[in-house]
Amino acid sequence: MIGKISGRVDYKALDHVLVDVRGVGYLVYCSDRTLAVLPGPGEAVALYTDMLVREDLLQLFGFTTLEEKEWYRLLLSVQGVGAKAALAILSALGPDGVGRAIALGDWNAVKAAKGVGPKTAQRVVNELKDKAPTVMAMGAQPAARPDPDALIEEATPAPAPVRNSRAKADPGPKIDAAARADALSALTNLGYQPSEAMQAVAQALDETPDANTSALIRAALRRLAPKD
Known about the structure:
It is found in: Cytoplasm. Pfam families: HHH_5, RuvA_C, RuvA_N. The chain has nine helices and five strands; from the N terminus they run E-E-E-H-E-E-H-H-H-H-H-H-H-H. The chain is an alpha+beta fold. Among the domains are: 67-136, 5' to 3' exonuclease, C-terminal subdomain (DNA polymerase, domain 1); 177-223, Orthogonal Bundle (Helicase, Ruva Protein, domain 3), CATH 1.10.8. It has a five-stranded mixed barrel with strand order 1-2-3-5-4. It starts with a strand and ends with a helix.
């Protein structure tokens, strides 16, 4: 099983990238958001990968962060969500957006993904709400980095990239992943259940996405405080 590849971008297409690793080209399917942040032809790139294995098909799917990869794997565990739908959800919301939607029970946000109906969106929110805190806490981990030893010294000229109009997806509000992960950890250490901590942090981030760790914890605690 291939878990990560590191090489040079040969070309980018509408839904995939070809990565040259020491002369071997790996075709890797990615979300629109991932394709949008990948470097241009001839430049170094690294992707965490997940392989889809069927009797008549082998496909690699690529992700810039472990958080995105784990969301992909969790989405696949939901009935009715295949690889195409999982990438569509990640394309529409991004890893942070998926976490917020599940934490807030916002299945309408999930339904906004291309090809995802209301029943499937509701299943995503309901089935993943207890698993989401673990993945959201991974947001502080660094993105995949190219391995210099895996790159050929002289990159061969690459063809011009295919214009990808879909790749210009709105990245949404900028979230401090480390602050979110630290706030989740602090709240669970205080004795709150992961699911309720996740919901409180998501609500706080929804209002102030640029909040630091201390501000997030205070805002989340206000939401967790017993109501009179």
